[in-house]
Design a protein that fits this description.
Elements: E1 7-11, E2 18-29, E3 32-41, H1 44-84
Antiparallel strand pairs: 1-2, 2-3
The structure holds zinc ion.
Zinc ion binds next to loops.
């Protein structure tokens, strides 16, 4: 069950239910202490779907990056080949 004192004050953009803090930690950045909070939807089923979407987006981003790197290598190789011709 979700306790009321870990509510974040924001709502899930997917289902409109309140988002809750699942984890918070402090990290020293230069001279100040910064508190980071990891939040999730209070509905675990909804959060699972959100996670899936995020995971898929990350996978796509990585695939695009990979593709761009390959193209860049190919471009360089073609350029080098032309220069040597
Ligand atoms: Zn939600």
């Amino acid at each position: 069950m979700t306790t009321l004192n870990n509510l974040t004050g924001s709502v899930c953009t997917r289902c409109g239910k309140p988002r809750v803090v699942v984890e918070s930690y402090e990290e020293k950045v230069e001279t100040s202490l910064v508190t980071y909070t990891i939040t999730a939807c209070s509905d675990p089923e909804c959060q699972k779907k959100v996670d899936l979407v995020l995971k898929e987006e990350k996978r796509k981003r990585l695939a695009i990056k990979d593709e761009q790197e390959k193209r860049e290598l190919l471009r360089k190789a073609t350029f080098a080949a032309r220069k040597n011709a």
